[in-house]
Design brief:
Layout: H1 3-12, H2 17-33, E1 39-43, H3 49-57, E2 60-65, H4 68-76, E3 82-84, E4 98-104, H5 113-123, E5 124-135, H6 143-148, H7 156-165, E6 168-176, H8 181-194, H9 207-224, E7 234-241
Parallel strand pairs: 1-2, 1-4, 2-3, 4-5
Antiparallel strand pairs: 5-7, 6-7
Helix pairs in contact: 2-9
Amino acid sequence: MDPRHLENLRSIERAYWWHVAKRKLVLELLRRHAPPPGLLVEGGVGGGANCLAFRDLGYDVRGFDLMAEAVENCRSLGLADVCVHDLLDPWPIEPAVARAVVLLDVIEHLPDPVRALRHGAGALRPDGAMVVTVPAFPALMGPWDRMLGHYRRYSRQLFKEQAREAGLRVIALSHWNSFTLPAAVVIRTLERLAGGRRSAEFPPVSRPVNALLIQMARLERQLMSVVPVPAGLSLVGVLTHE
């Protein structure tokens, strides 16, 4: 991750609608599939807001990140059990100890995502669950993704294939962020025509729009509790041992 993007992330992830919506979605899935107490391991800690939310939910939290700046930021927030580590290397954790593993918009940044998923699976207890989010729709791959360092965007089929290769079973899979998909298609098309994008920062929105998008995401989660959402800018999956 570009250090400038990390700084942008730190400044907005506690209140910006996309981060709030994803965090609430993941917390709901954790409560349903791998509720605390227990150890939760997050690969790719970002700005630290998710780790704080997981701790507040009742987990003992451990985190890894490739960026020393991200680790230092988490430690400044009181998250002591965070260290610099490449997720493609064997994880510095005892096998089968984690109640939950979370990889939130992480594996699309990796040249070998299956290896990271295998390491995460090795950390999971037999009754544990892994929650993974990724960007969806490979056809939307463009300047935004390249600026963020994405190797790929995911289809449902690719997500399932990589989980299976890692020895994991997908027990829940849904698109999310469906309500911004039409606008995103238009914006990404215009970016391609214009020859690129100037910044990887999240586009600013007014407070009323931010609040509206958070509410739309809440309604989407209510739908997801009944039936998977068929289309959206991202995918979220829950994985367990085979």
